[in-house]
Amino acid sequence: MLMIFELMQIAVKTKKLPIIVITIVFITLSSFVVHWLEPDMFVTPFIGFWYVMTTVTTTGYGDFVPETTIGKLYGLFLYIFGIGLIGIVIGKIVEGYGMFQTLKEEGKLRFRGKGHYVIIGWSNKAKHTMNEIIEIGEDVKIVLIDSLPSTPIESVNLFYIQGDPTDKQTLEQANVQEAHAVLIFTEENEIDPVSADGKSLIIVSSVEGYAVDLGIDIYTIVEILKEKHIPNFKHANVDEFVIADEALSDLMAKSAVHKGSSKIVMKLLSRKSGVDIWKLFNRGLWKTYNDAFEELKSLEANFISDQYDFQILKKLNEPLPDDAELYVICSKDTYQNITRKFKLD
């Protein structure tokens, strides 16, 4: 009996894989042993396996029970050793799950999904952006890269990675090469625009450099504090800029001159309004701007621009390029109906 308890102590200290292998071997051998000891009761090794599993898991259906003394003695052995062994395995599995959760919360695991959004730098702005992206669809995944000791919030949509965003290993861990877009935010309460934009420039240069090494294109969006820094970012092949200071100033000015205009802009920017700005590609569907304007209107979508050109009403009779990028304002359901109808998804 003491030897069995000593074996249990050794098993507890054993690593997960060896103990799982030992358990599988033990259950398999026991299935053949009980079949060999009492072939009349356990007519096949599978019946023996059924008896062993119902015994060591303490289920105990009682449909098959040993009748001989040697069979009952082996059953006692299963009670003492087998149940303990299964308990250790279950404990190891729970321990492994707990370790997995800890590593995930601390940002030590690799993200293996695709089509996700990578956010670099946690702040209230980043949190709000994440919530807005999630409004697009409940299944969207956000990967956050930051130096925080653990994930800032618990969310099924958020996967946290702790690390330096200028480090290639961190970018690989976030699987940025498969991301839909990479969004780079300045640090919260950063008052020095040169320092903030300089840090963002280093980060986006690392991301774009990593893309060049892989021979792929990674769509990058960067928050910039000063517009005069844009030329520096253009050399880094940044796809889009969001100028924080100028955007706020422009919105304040519009509100002062045209009272209430800021509410319209903020309402449009928020997905809670029920409508949003969506992007469509022509792909030869419409010959003129008017063709696109009228058909999209019939589908309850407002055609507002071709890329950055908002003068749509002045050029309705002009040819619409096959590679035109059309922006419309409509609900999510309307956008999905349009993409399904014209097979644009």
From TrEMBL:
It is found in: Cell membrane. One of its GO terms (molecular function) is potassium channel activity. Keywords: Ion channel, Ion transport, Membrane, Potassium, Potassium channel, Potassium transport, Transmembrane, Transmembrane helix, Transport. Gene3D superfamilies: 1.10.287.70, NAD(P)-binding Rossmann-like Domain (3.40.50.720). It is a multi-pass membrane protein. One of its GO terms (cellular component) is plasma membrane. InterPro entries: K_chnl_dom (IPR013099), K_chnl_Slo-like (IPR047871), NAD(P)-bd_dom_sf (IPR036291), RCK_N (IPR003148). It catalyses: K(+)(in) = K(+)(out). Residues 114-248 form the RCK N-terminal domain. The chain crosses the membrane at residues 17-36, 42-61, 73-94. Its main location: membrane. This is Ion transporter. It comes from Salipaludibacillus neizhouensis.
